[in-house]
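[audit] Reproducing an earlier prediction to check determinism. Same input, same settings, fresh worker. If the tokens differ from the archived copy the diff job will pick it up downstream; this log only records the rerun itself.
[audit] input (51 residues):
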Amino acid sequence: MSDIKRFQVSERMSQCVVHGNTVYTAGQVAHSAQGAPVADQTRAILAQIDE
């Protein structure tokens, strides 16, 4: 069984949770690509996560 790892934890939630090979994120928005097509917004969010 995989361990659950939490990052940037607060009383209510974690910004990131890793369980097995899956990463769950919260609160990621594409400020730099606002109004852009969804593909551009997705690239912007994934770049933020990589940072």
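[audit] rerun output stored. Observation attached for the diff report: The two ends are 29 Å apart (CA to CA).
[audit] end
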